[in-house]
Write a structure and sequence with these properties.
The chain is built from three helices and five strands. It has about 140 residues and is of the alpha+beta class. It has a five-stranded antiparallel beta sheet, covered by helices on one side. The mean pLDDT is about 80. It comes from Gordonia humi.
Length: about 140
């Protein structure tokens, strides 16, 4: 390849990279703007600082009031909202769909191959060095 083609090819590659990067950035900005404009009272949100809360008031266009604990409402800029977080359910998941195989007895189970025996690792008696630490040194 001649050296006269290298520079135009490098410039073309950089232009394609910049175009793709700017396009993706615009898509992310539009998605974030849509999410922030769709926030209504009662929505559980996560802020950029990692704080979770429930939106209490959205009457101002730039400011939202977020309840972070019962009775504790803080004021945040709408741009601080990272995402609308799903509301955690207090009900446990339905575990009937999973296939658990529970044995009727413990006869066939061998616990020795699961790891070290921790009962032997526990030392109930203090060592000689540990019991002497409380006494003052004699000279």
């Amino acid at each position: 390849m001649s050296s006269s083609l290298i520079i135009p090819l490098m410039l073309a590659a950089m232009a394609v990279f910049m175009f793709v990067n700017i396009r993706n950035q615009k898509k992310r900005a539009a998605a974030t703007a849509d999410m922030q404009s769709s926030i209504v009272e009662g929505t559980r949100v996560q802020l950029h600082c990692g704080l979770f809360g429930i939106v209490a008031d959205t009457s101002d266009s730039d400011v939202v009031h977020i309840e972070i604990a019962p009775g504790v409402v803080t004021e945040w800029n709408r741009l601080a909202i990272r995402e609308a977080a799903p509301i955690a359910s207090d009900e446990p998941e339905n575990l009937d769909d999973t296939d658990f195989q529970v044995p009727d007895s413990l006869e066939g189970l061998d616990g020795a191959s699961d790891g070290p025996d921790l009962r032997k690792a526990a030392d109930p008696e203090p060592s000689k060095d540990e019991s002497d630490d409380d006494k003052p040194e004699e000279k």
